[in-house]
Specification:
There is one protein chain. The protein is of the alpha/beta class. It has one domain: Rossmann fold (3-Layer(aba) Sandwich), CATH 3.40.50.2300. It is built from 5 helices and 9 strands, in the order ββαβαβββαβαβαβ. The chain has a 5-stranded parallel β-sheet with strand order 3-2-4-7-8, sandwiched between helices. The chain has a two-stranded antiparallel sheet with strand order 1-9. Strands 5-6 form a two-stranded antiparallel sheet. α3 runs parallel beside α4. The protein starts with a strand and ends in an 18-residue tail after the last strand.
């Protein structure tokens, strides 16, 4: 059985966003990249996502506030992917509703483990959908995650 997992990746650094998008797509996930809070909110209105992976420091706002808003609206599971690593940052992300706090740079294995943990947690709000689709070259709507 396979599941469709749609990720909203919010990252303002172009190279970092592209690297994580490409790596996640190669693992079979659908990934939509937003470069700022406004774009992330617009994307969340336009389509449904199962998982938010979000930087904390964005050019037009705060990743924790974005997480709170999106979780309030949809219950989306969330992972913080950031360079902010002080104890206060961990407390802030936990209070905002992030289920995991990863420090950049993070290995692909650690990122995938966090994604799978959030997706597979039965108490989480991540929606799982059956799918047999595959990724297209540009990560279009046929790009799906396969979860054992």
């Amino acid at each position: 059985m396979s599941y469709l997992v749609r990720i909203l990746l919010v990252e303002d650094h172009d190279d970092t966003a592209e690297a994580y998008r490409t790596l996640l797509m190669r693992r079979g996930y659908f990934v939509h990249v937003a470069r700022n809070v406004a774009d992330a909110k617009a994307a969340a209105v336009a389509q449904e996502f199962d998982l938010l992976i979000c930087d904390l420091v964005l050019p037009d706002g705060d990743g924790c506030e974005l997480c709170r808003e999106l979780r309030e609206a949809s219950g989306i599971g969330a992972i913080a992917l950031t360079a902010c690593g002080y104890p206060a940052d961990f407390a802030k992300t936990k209070a905002a509703g992030f289920r995991s706090h990863l420090l950049k740079p993070v290995s692909l294995d650690v990122l995938i483990a966090a994604v799978e943990s959030v997706v597979q947690d039965p108490s989480g709000a991540v929606n799982r959908r059956e799918s047999s689709g595959a990724c297209d070259e540009k990560g279009g709507p046929r790009c799906h995650g396969v979860i054992p």
